[in-house]
Task: structure prediction
Amino acid sequence: MKERESPDNDLPSMDFTELLDGLSGKWVVLSEDKRKVLYSADSLTDLVEDMDEGIVMMVPSSGTVYIPSFV
Result:
């Protein structure tokens, strides 16, 4: 995953293109450092049955611009 400088704040922007390749339309759990996909599933219900840690997000369909927010 590439990190790029963000001119508007102190947080670097992150490019998830390679990490999430092939997971369009699926729910995923990312590691806390956002460098690995720990789990993936077609539905959120299926995902939470298997997960025990991480950051949950839905991967948008290909061609969709999406900026995740990690608070």
